[in-house]
Amino acid sequence: MALILELDVGNTAIKWRRLNGAVILDSGRIANELEGLKELVGAGVCLVRVASVAFAEREAELRALLVGAKVKYEFAVSQAECAGVKNGYDDVSRMGVDRWLAMLAAYNSCRDACVIIDAGTALTIDAVGKDGQHHGGYILPGAGLALRALEQSTGRVRFGIAESADTGLGKNTDACVHNGKWLGLVGAVKLALYEAEKQIGRHYKVLVTGGDGMNVKQLAGEYAESWHYSRDLVLDGLALALAKA
C-alpha cells in the first residue's frame, strides 16, 4: 500500500490526512508541534504533500524532519495558473498557498463561478469567475485574532470564554465581545459577497472551510442556506497543485 500523507501547516495547528491513492484512510489535527508528526511520517508513508503558511523557521524545521525521515516530499506553492484557475495577483508569490489551494479545490469541484470563505486564524475571502479567473479577495483577522487584539490593546475590556456562537445584542461584556466578533465576520462575508457579484455576476457557488467556517455559515442563517461547507478544501487542492504536467 503506497501511503500519502498530506499536511496543512498553519500558524496554530497542523491538519493531516493519510491516503491510499485517492482514498482517504484517516485524518486529524495536532497542535503546531512538529514532534507530533514523527509517528505519522514514519508509518509507511512514501510521499508527503505539504501546504505551509508557517513562519520560515518552523517550515525549515519541518523540512529537516522530512529529510531526516528519508521520505519524499513536495511543498505546494502559489502559481500563475493551474487546474483551470488563473491567479489574479500581480505577484503570485505573495499569495498564501492555503488560499490558492482552496481556490483550486473549490473551482474544480463546481466548475462555476464561486466565492471561497476560509475562516481560520485569518478570514480570507476570494472570488473566482466561471472561466476560472481569480478576481481578488480579502484578508481579515479571524475570530481568535479579533479577541486577542481587544485583550492586548485595551485596558478594561476583559471577557471570559463564550459558551456558544451568537450575533445577538450583548447585555454584558462577555456577550458584547464574543457576539461582536461573529457579527464582524458574518457582516464582512455578506458585504464581500455583494462586492464579488460586481465581478463574477449574481450566479455563483459559495464554499466555506476553516475551523470557524461552520459557525460563520450557521450564523448567516437563511442567507447561507445554499453555501457548501468543506472541511478540507486546502488539502483537497494539494493533488491538483502538485500534479505533474
Alpha-beta content class: alpha/beta
Low-confidence stretches: none
- The percent of residues in helical segments reads 25-40%
**CA-CA gap between termini:** 24 Å
What's the SSE pattern? EEEHEHEEEHEEEHHEHEH
The total of helices stands at 7
C-alpha Rg, in Å? 19 Å
| Backbone shape | globular
Short key terms for the protein model shown above:
245 residues; alpha/beta; 5-stranded mixed β-sheet; 36% helix; globular
Furnish the topology, listing elements before pairings.
Blueprint: E1 3-9, E2 13-20, E3 23-31, H1 38-41, E4 45-52, H2 56-68, E5 72-75, E6 81-82, E7 85-86, H3 97-110, E8 114-119, E9 122-128, E10 134-141, H4 143-153, H5 173-200, E11 205-209, H6 213-219, E12 228-229, H7 233-242
Parallel strand pairs: 1-4, 4-5, 8-11, 11-12
Antiparallel strand pairs: 1-2, 2-3, 6-7, 8-9, 9-10
Walk me through what this model shows.
This protein is an alpha/beta fold. It has 7 helices and 12 strands. It has helices at 38-41, 56-68, 97-110, 143-153, 173-200, 213-219, 233-242, and strands at residues 3-9, 13-20, 23-31, 45-52, 72-75, 81-82, 85-86, 114-119, 122-128, 134-141, 205-209, 228-229. A 5-stranded mixed β-sheet has the order 3-2-1-4-5, sandwiched between helices. A 5-stranded mixed β-sheet has the order 10-9-8-11-12, with helices on both faces. It has a two-stranded antiparallel ribbon with strand order 6-7. A hairpin with a 2-residue loop joins strand 6 (81-82) and strand 7.
